[in-house]
Design goal:
This protein has about 450 residues and is an all-alpha fold. It has helices at about 1-35, 40-70, 70-90, 95-120, 130-150, 160-175, 195-200, 200-225, 230-260, 260-285, 290-305, 305-315, 325-350, 355-375, 400-405, 415-420, 425-440, 445-450, 450-455. Helix 1 (about 1-35) runs parallel beside helix 5, helix 2 crosses helix 8 and helix 3 (about 70-90) runs antiparallel to helix 4 (about 95-120).
Amino acid sequence: MREALAACWPLLLGIGLMMLGNGMQGTLLGLRANLEGFPTAITGIIMSGYYVGFLLGSVLTPRILGNVGHVRVFAALASLGSTAALIHAVFPDPTIWTIFRVVTGFSFAGLYIVSESWLNDTATNETRGQILSVYMLVTFIGIAGGQFLLTIADPGGYSPFIIVSILVSLALIPTALTASPMPAVQKTEKLGVRQLYRISPLGVVGILFVGVLQGAFFAMGAVFGGLQGLTVFQISMFMSLSVVGGALFQMPIGKISDIFDRRQVLMFCALITGALALATVYVAQNYSVYAFLAIATVYGGFCMPLYSLCIAHTNDHMEPSQMVAASSGLILVNGAGAIVGPIIVSSLMGWFGGIAFYLFMAAVSFVIVLFALYRMTRRQAVPEEDQNDFVAMPVRSGVVAVGLNPEAEWEGEEEELSSEAGEGSLTKASMAILEDLSDDDDEDELMDDGPSIWNRNG
């Protein structure tokens, strides 16, 4: 493990710096939009632009990688992301902010693909699970730390945007100088979104509404804090503690889902998330800021693992060879939800005030609960011995969910998985998104190849 970390620490450092900059910028823009007097609904449109760009970057970056290579793509996108951060400070205009929020999302999607596929290629089957754990820690520290960086500079000035630009630029240095060989760009099996829905309806619908839920939270959380009259420090605490709560609850919830029917665990977490959202509305209105921060932490603890639970539930219904393509489809669906979420919640907040923020979270959570209940009446649970191990996924890092699978142990398929997991599976997954967009559907193919799936999982 020491040798593995020695080989990949530059990549981890680069990812950590990216997460610091990205985490800081997302919350900063919400604060600054409020200071600039942008209407809440307009702020939601601006913030949703990030997810539009993220989807575009996930689709287009693998194509660019095949032409010019990882180092050049990373350098170009880091420069683009760094420049976009500064333009927000120079031109505080909603239209320009929306355009460059799309540019930022595009840049970060590509940066994640390059660095994380590289990290995945550096790992071996023996070290992949441990490296994933370290990566998870780096991701959560980066996101949470980015919130606290807001307190060192006035959000109304240029300095915070300069700090974001510096962090993104610094992320280029360790990644560009790493001695690890560049991973290969390969193609993977196709699996359309409609096919994916037929195999795992709850996984697809769940990941869609989780995208709505978490996209709205990260895009508009700072705006909600401003409407509640919180200080910049209190807003940074609110956002970071929500992420910390997710980090603390991920593995315990995951272990429970490995033992019991994963649909029940998913439904329970969504139910608690909705109940805590309603409770947070009351606490924010009637209790101290410390009580609000405490319940926000627990809310994050149940909300953030929903993404990982949907991925794990879907994988329970997949053959090993389909999992990369399935994860690609789930990213596409989750990203679509993340685009819509900020627009809807910002409009509601514009009409009804800050109280609509957590009421919307509660409503979306209860939709997941109801659909999970419905699906439990339509299909038997996957037997415990057939469930795949839960893998905790980083919060809002998008494409990383695909590539860094820990060591897998399917009888009779170890050699196939070993070669596949170590050769840029992340980038292959992004290529699958492109295939989903360019291919309408292959339902007949599913009917030909699918009986083993249905027989195995009921």
